[in-house]
Amino acid sequence: MRALLPFLTLFKHAKFHLILGIVLMLAGMIASIGLMTLSGWFLAATAIAGIGTLFNYFYPSASVRGLAIGRTAARYVEKIVTHDATFRVLAKLRVQIFSRIIPLSPGVLNQYRNSDLLNRLVADVDTLDSLYLRLVAPFITALSIIVIMTIGLSFVNVGLALFIGISLLVLLSVIPTLFYQLGKRFGAQLTQARSLYRVQFVEFIQAQAELLLFNAQNQAQKKLEHIEAQWQNYQQKEANLSGLSTALLVFFNGLLVVAVLWFVSEADLGTGLYKAAMIALFTFCALASFEMLMPIGAAFLHIGQVIASAERVSEITQQTPMVKFTGTQELFLNSQPLIQAENITFQYPNRSDLALNQLNLTIFSGQKTAILGKTGSGKSTLLQLLVRNYDALQGQLLLAGKSIEHYTECSLRKNICFLTQRVHVFSDTLRNNLQIANENTIDDQRMQYIVEQVGLGKLLQDQGLDLWLGDGGRPLSGGEQRRLGLARILLNDAPILLLDEPTEGLDRETERHILNLILQHAQNKTLIMVTHRLTALAQFDLLCVMDNAKLIEQGSYSELLNQESGFFKRLVERI
Ligand code: ATP
Ligand code: MG
């Protein structure tokens, strides 16, 4: 239950609407019970009075009308207000979750699959809507109704009023506790199964090509069906228990009505024929009062799912980012050296080996640096640290003479442009895919020029920059994606460029052309480029060779070529 506390505190953002919702729910319920009770009494009284007796039937019949109209109106407005209140709270919650997710560094978010994150953000937050609609509001309403009804009936007969009130109170405490306990365990399992099914289903759709090629579709389908069967099994259990809660309440309703009939016939309700009308009043009141208890059993059965969803959402919101941007300074590139790595050591979370081991590196402003090395040697990791996607475990990383932690995130992003190894293509137009490269509006002409330059002119043929890319649009080959990423770099004005294998997957001729473009664009900038190729390396000021998380060689092209039995020299000779 404690998992629900952070979400209950969100209620303060829609206090007025939530209270109004409960008041309206209360009004609707009072009208409903009042209608039944008054009708019961009125019909009985009219029948007893018979024809020819003086009996004022105007007030009761007008009240019956009034209560019937009041019930409909209150219910209508109540539905609008309670749902509006819930959506207000959920909107706050979604924004809160989103603002907590964004600063989580890749290191934290990597632990979750995208579909799982989406599921938490959408389905689990949706489940939390029943916290107010199905649990809090109906429970408070039921409690208030019991008190009001007992006080109301006690004006007629205190003993009977207390009997009905206490019986209802006992049911209101026993039924929710019982069904909360019954639903607690499998509610969490149901939520897990639902999430697992959705994650697996997305994977099943996304992996269709591989599954077909390897003839593994049947196997994957069976796995999916198994998870679905489990999910349905839990749903079936919930439905059974929900049915049981209704059956129990109907049974107790009948029992209470019989008991009330029994006691009321014995009670002192005045004399004469009108006593019979009072019997009808109490009986119908007991009968109608169950309307407020009916939804409560199923709602408390559902609480297990609400708690599980709350825990799943909290798991994300309570994560602390691995990198916190607390710096306040702006980065100015006028001091040398520009980048200094001093004994940097880094290890990815959940990994036992080091990704960077005691790395020392100095780069001056305007220098062109190439980083080479075997796969998995830590090249991309070094770039990740330079953009503060992660912080070093030990050692210092200085930018313009100050620790990288001193700078604001905005200042780092403005000054450093990073082409990652995997380029993300948005499901959007080519224009918008390029526009993200620069906070200032880039004019179409410049975009078209750069698109031609990186060899993607073909894309402009039919629809120009309006061509839709990504999902549902024109698919891009691996090489085309890299060149789209490169176009973004060329449209960006940042003075420091970090490029992670910009020419990977390109043929030699295109590679040479792209490298020339990069070097031309980086003429007055600082460039750090990770590469597996040896093309154009002579044009770089500094070459760094990494192996097994260490920087094993560094120097100019000619210096490294002259190093006897050096890694780089052997590489060049081999190729
Ligand atoms: P490549 O040339 O294949 O791109 P690389 O030199 O860029 O390789 P890195 O990506 O820096 O290598 O990886 C260095 C080591 O860190 C590898 O062993 C890799 O498995 C590990 N690694 C990389 N990213 C992560 C991550 N997000 N979480 C855990 N380990 C990681
Ligand atoms: Mg890499």
Write the layout of secondary structure elements.
Elements: H1 5-8, H2 15-49, H3 58-101, H4 106-109, H5 114-127, H6 130-154, H7 158-206, H8 208-213, H9 217-266, H10 274-288, H11 290-301, H12 303-317, E1 339-346, E2 356-363, E3 368-373, H13 379-386, E4 394-399, E5 402-403, H14 409-415, E6 416-419, H15 430-435, H16 444-453, H17 478-491, E7 496-500, H18 508-521, E8 526-530, E9 542-547, E10 550-555, H19 557-561, H20 567-574
Structure description:
The chain has helices spanning 5-8, 15-49, 58-101, 106-109, 114-127, 130-154, 158-206, 208-213, 217-266, 274-288, 290-301, 303-317, 379-386, 409-415, 430-435, 444-453, 478-491, 508-521, 557-561, 567-574; strands at residues 339-346, 356-363, 368-373, 394-399, 402-403, 416-419, 496-500, 526-530, 542-547, 550-555. It has 575 residues and is α/β, with parallel strands linked by helices. The strands form 2 sheets. Strands 6-7-8-3-9-10 form a 6-stranded mixed β-sheet, with helices on both faces. Helix 5 (114-127) runs antiparallel to helix 7 (158-206).
Structural class, by secondary structure, is: alpha/beta
* H and E order: HHHHHHHHHHHHEEEHEEHEHHHEHEEEHH
**Annotated CATH topology of the largest domain:** ABC transporter transmembrane region fold
- The portion of residues assigned to helices is 55-70%
Strand content: 5-15%
CATH class of the largest domain: Mainly Alpha
Are there runs of 5+ residues with pLDDT below 50, and where? Answer: none
CATH superfamily of the largest domain: ABC transporter type 1, transmembrane domain
**CATH architecture assignment name of the largest domain:** Up-down Bundle
For the termini, the CA-CA separation is 65 Å
- Give the overall pLDDT as a whole number: 90
Number of domains: 2
What strand order characterises the main sheet? 6-7-8-3-9-10
Small ligands present: adenosine-5'-triphosphate, magnesium ion
Shape: elongated
Radius of gyration: 36 Å
Task: Name the quaternary structure.
Answer: single chain
User: How many DSSP E strands?
Assistant: 10
Q: Describe the biggest sheet?
A: 6 strands, mixed
Transmembrane segments: 16-35, 41-59, 131-153, 159-180, 241-264, 276-303
Subunit structure: Forms a heterodimer with CydD.
GO molecular function: ABC-type oligopeptide transporter activity; ATP binding; ATP hydrolysis activity
Pfam families: ABC_membrane (PF00664), ABC_tran (PF00005)
